[in-house]
Amino acid sequence: MTDPSPAISPSGDPWPHPRQRAWVEVCEAAVQANARSLRRSLAPGCQLMAVVKADGYGHGAVPVARAAAAGGASTFGVATLQEGVELRQAGLRQPVLVLGNLTQPEELRACLHWQLMPTLSGMREALLCQNLAAGSGRPMAVQLKLDTGMARLGAPWQEGRRIAEAISALEAVQLAGLYSHLADADAPGTVLDPLTRQQQERFEQVLTGVQEAGLACGSRHLANSAGTLRTAQLHYDMVRVGLALYGQRPAVHLGGSLALQPAMQVRARVSLIREVPAGTGVSYGHRFTTQRPSRLAVVSIGYADGVPRLLSNRLQVLHHGRRIPQVGAITMDQLVLDATEAPELEQGSVVTLLGSDGGERIDPLAWSDPCGTIPWEILCGFKHRLPRLPMAGPDA
Ligand SMILES: *Cc1c(COP(=O)(O)O)cnc(C)c1O
To answer: Which among 75, 134, 168, 272 could disulfide-bond with 49, CB atoms 3.0 to 4.6 Å apart, if both were Cys?
Structure first.
């Protein structure tokens, strides 16, 4: 049995080793390399915003932000105020755009204090920013979002020019960006789909109007990962990349020419091996019954860690390049493998649920497809019960 050495807490008490049960390994070098490849693929002069919301898509926001910056990202995108503050408290000084909607004066005051740019969808918040900034004596940078066809955040694109003019007239507010968000940039096909084309045309109409009015609107941006990988025509002054930064492609037909490296590995230990006869029902509801004398391996990870229960009887894990099937219902804290054909698996062995092990790899798509969801949800579904550790490999 490969037993990790026990760790000692700062107070000297016995403490579980972070690799004792289950954990997420994050390869910061992969994030840095992905940022660099993405950066190189952008239209000339186009900047890279690293989207590190949802704790860096589950990888850990601060280390990911540092790695992305080292790879050439100039700006960070977060969803919430707290996520922005976390970057500032970690000492990161790059521009940060809050992509979510902040509506309360206290939230906008915190933006001003921490030098985070709020996204505005209309004049109500713009006026709040003006009041706060005027009272504080320092200007407040904001970005205006336009709804060009997503029907989520943003001012109606038809009002884009008028609102941009009104914001520009506010003395204490600086319009640092004008952006919109694509609803279907990962649609199949090589030519731009009609919805993306329509969104781009609407965005361009606003940009033209703003230019005619002689306004400085700061950075113009439209593309998420899919838009970025799709065509340089969607790049403008900046792209907002999340998924691809973490080494995942938003669709199988996108990003094939970029060598993106997956940055996350999820690993867990076998806590118990048991030999059972044929006809043994396994786990809740006996949703699996052994057809032969079997060797079962209990692994210490479950749906409370972020392994979807919907994958019960459909999951595979890797051990030294061998694929081992999971059987029976996945439970809150553990799952069971049929290790009959993996005699080398023993108590304490490390298996890989996502990522690379022995030349084989399991991608989030292998989980999201059978669950009827998308890789984004799988990545940000890993809970804080799993420590985030630097990449070390299954045998570390
Ligand atoms: C999350 C988000 C992104 C990043 O999307 P990916 O598909 O992960 O690249 C970009 N823009 C906005 C507004 C977002 O909310």
So the answer is: 75
Alpha-helical runs (H) found in the chain: 28-41, 53-57, 61-70, 81-89, 105-114, 123-136, 160-168, 194-212, 225-230, 364-371, 375-379
Alpha carbon 378 to its chain centroid, in Å, reads 9
Query: What's the 171 CA to ligand 1 centre distance in angstroms?
Result: 30
Give residue for tokens 């037909």: 253
pLDDT in tens, 198-208: 999 999 999 99
- For ligand 1, the distance from its centroid to the CA atom of residue 224, given in whole angstroms, is 5
Of 78, 99, 102, 378, best ligand 1 pocket probe by most atoms within 8 Å of the beta carbon: 99
Domains of the chain by start residue, with CATH: 28-246 (3.20.20.10), 264-390 (2.40.37.10)
Residues 40-94 have pLDDT tens digits of 999 999 999 999 999 999 999 999 999 999 999 999 999 999 999 999 999 999 9
